[in-house]
Amino acid sequence: METIKNSCGRILPKYIEGYGEVKPFIGAFETIPDEEKEIQVKCGYGKPGENKFVGTIKEALLKSGIKNGMTISFHHHLREGDEVVNMAITAIRELGIKDLKIAPSALFETHKMILESLKDGTIKYIEGSMNGAIGRATSEGKLSGVAVLRSHGGRVRSIRQGDLKIDIAIIAAPTADIYGNANGLYGKNACGPLAYSHADSLYAKKVIIVTDNLVKYPAIPVSISQINVDFVVVVDSIGDHNKIVSGTTSIQSNPISEKIAKFSTDIIEHSGYFKDGFSIQAGAGGISLSVVKTVGELMEKKGIKAAWANGGTTAILVDLFKRGLIEKLSTCQAFDLVSVQSLKEDPMHLETNIDFYANPFNKGCLCNLLDVVILGATEVDVNYNVNVNTHSDGYLLHGIGGHQDTAACAKLTIITVPIARKTNPIIIDDVTTITTPGECIDVVVTEVGVAINPKRKDLIENLSKTDIPLFTIEQLRDKAKELAGRGYVKPKTTDRVIGVIEWRDGTVIDVVHQVDLN
Amino acid sequence: METIKNSCGRILPKYIEGYGEVKPFIGAFETIPDEEKEIQVKCGYGKPGENKFVGTIKEALLKSGIKNGMTISFHHHLREGDEVVNMAITAIRELGIKDLKIAPSALFETHKMILESLKDGTIKYIEGSMNGAIGRATSEGKLSGVAVLRSHGGRVRSIRQGDLKIDIAIIAAPTADIYGNANGLYGKNACGPLAYSHADSLYAKKVIIVTDNLVKYPAIPVSISQINVDFVVVVDSIGDHNKIVSGTTSIQSNPISEKIAKFSTDIIEHSGYFKDGFSIQAGAGGISLSVVKTVGELMEKKGIKAAWANGGTTAILVDLFKRGLIEKLSTCQAFDLVSVQSLKEDPMHLETNIDFYANPFNKGCLCNLLDVVILGATEVDVNYNVNVNTHSDGYLLHGIGGHQDTAACAKLTIITVPIARKTNPIIIDDVTTITTPGECIDVVVTEVGVAINPKRKDLIENLSKTDIPLFTIEQLRDKAKELAGRGYVKPKTTDRVIGVIEWRDGTVIDVVHQVDLN
């Protein structure tokens, strides 16, 4: 097998069956698009008197011309409460369609019925995040083709640029009208934005809306537009929006989190970015959320207001917004129902689609203007490379989310991690998988102390004057080993590539190998 | 010159210099797009730390790479109050750029300074509506190239399909932020939607926002998105939004209008479409507005509610909406400041872009669902063909607006006209210019009486039972001649085509010849 080394030092196959030629990662902003490259959209046609109503998902799939080998996309706004992926895959299996590529923005534990479809050949490829069971199965080689993981921004980039061509987009819609306008703000399963599906609706050949709340025309607001929708299917239930809240989206209260939150807040305060009109985003991890809470307390104490915050929005952000500490909120994903409610009722709370939020190849995404982001990790290494995809046992269990997008763009990127998890050291010599390269990371915060990327001399200078316990990353690595009681043990894997980790620009930053169960 | 006859019987050149090959109109819904046709968009690129701010329009034009022969587009939401077209053309003349095609959604009397640019070779082609002075000059041969007129929907279709390729879109924005997000809801010159520019922003190679109200990021709502904007220019004033209201957008109270409104309302009531949940749109003409008012009174009296109305929105529609007689309002253009205010404060008042509203070549525009539309005309002929572009003296003085789009799609299309204007009969044998073909017109209402298109046997049956004075269209023609005191006199024109009237699907329904001043 011919290989190539990317600029993070990862050895990659030059060609991956089912993925194609590997363009190696060459730096966070080094791959520049051909601005003249033409994005292609089908025009479609609809005239008066035509009806988009279709009785069942199966019928809609047939009318969409479903065939073996097609690519079908989904969104994950309902997270663990989504039922539409399962309904669609069931219909597809009944139709006997094989070798599909599915392109969900993310899959969850609730979609584990899909495992049967990996076995029987219904699904051959997955391009999208895989949380839990499906990632586990993929890691063990149960997906016959290869999985491709992209950041939120990278997914939209790949759709707009034609790397990911979607044949049929199936969009779970908490509210829709007869002509396909849809939103996530109303209905028994209101989930907030329909941001993940926005690009799918624009660029997929056929678009199917699946709703459990059909309202009079026109459904307002128009998150998904009728001009892009082919069929509308009404079902009893698209799932259960109460399950939007999950472990990764709720605050953690324990001594480790509190310490990390305290250090992070001190860093933000003295970073030079903490001033009126700053902007902030926090990932979904419990620690990140704790940081938002303590930063909010600091803002109130110091009389500092943020111009805007972006989410993955939670009740914590909404609370700061309602109290006037954040002037405007922008939301691509609601992590709880308080956020959904605010998006519905607050005019200065903006639903943003993912192109707007994070696509590196448009005329400017929101991430480009972000001051501070607080993110999590499964591992961090001495080159500040961050892993969020695999665990130290080699299993691919998480998606990239907005990690790459925000880390690359924000002026201050803070990674918050416990220094060890059980017997796993978290700051190590070399991460199992590189999700985000060290060049994008400014500060690593653990409960034991903080390491600042040496390239950020300004931050080192500002933070040296404080009582934040600063260490080199190598010192943190040593402490991690000490606390875990053992060093990092590289997981045993086979030669087979089961997952490709793309950088947001479409180059490959790493690959994931099948775990070796022998 | 080789000619070809379209299905309305118009003899057209097969080829028009500066326009190209003429595709003849073959019927309102006969030209079907290739659904697989690919629409092309440039991807663009913007990264952190880059700034979109530019000091002047001239500098923004230079940075956009302005060159001789390019196509520059504008919107007309500010109508007679727009200053941005004039500022841009002034800058372009100072740069010495020649042979431009300008593609405004419409030009008004306030843009008459442009006449100098026709003379000095700055502007060679106009693709867009021309109201008043510029239409007059074009009719007299003062535009060296040809003008192309399209309906609102046809304009977006032509942009999406690549018939009209825009190099630089210049967008007057009542509110914008540093990254190019813009809307028309806030600011000293709030004009309502920015619907006309939406397609321009998506498909133009370069996009320049010109604003007089820069707000903190992000400007909410996002009518024009940062992801499509290259440059932001701040000026003292983009114009005067008080001049949005004009002669064609205010109600007329006179015996003729009142009679026409009464007949029209009776027709709607007995048409079969007047029931709970119906939808309605009215054109900008004074008579149309009078009809809306009387229909509103009828709705109140009969306890009938409309599900939605679309505008060109005026205070009259907003009043019905606020009183609950119309459940939802959708607006592509605000005809007064009451409408702007409502769009800002009423959640069930939707800003719709023109693709959504009227493009015939997408998966379904709003017009397709319209029940009743009330429209005006400059002339109507015995084949029910309607002219809204030229006057009987042959001068091209008005745009098409949404006339074709709504007439083609609505279940009931009512044309309201006085039977004569001064000594001009309005119902005639053959209209000077065909804008909308007779096949799209259901009823013609004059103050003298009403003619129903014979193909609408259902309407004839329903309305025969009422006391509405029904005539054949030929009878109305005769009455028109009698009241005008003379028959229709065909204007003297030369052989030169100065204007192409496209049907919304891109075929040519008619051409306009230069008036013969000899």
Description:
Two copies of one chain form a homodimer. With 518 residues, chain A is α/β, with parallel strands linked by helices. The first copy, chain A, folds into two domains: 42-244, Glutaconate Coenzyme A-transferase; 247-490, Glutaconate Coenzyme A-transferase. The first copy, chain A, is 25% helix and 25% strand. Chain A has 14 helices and 33 strands. In chain A, the strands form eight sheets. Chain A has a ten-stranded mixed β-sheet with strand order 6-17-16-13-7-8-10-12-32-33, with helices on both faces. Chain A has a nine-stranded mixed β-sheet with strand order 21-20-19-18-22-25-29-30-31, sandwiched between helices. A three-stranded mixed β-sheet of chain A has the order 24-23-28. In chain A, a hairpin with a 4-residue loop joins strand 29 (443-445) and strand 30. The longest helix of chain A has 17 residues, at 286-302. Strand 5 (38-42) of chain A pairs antiparallel with strand 5 (38-42) of chain B, so a sheet runs across the interface.
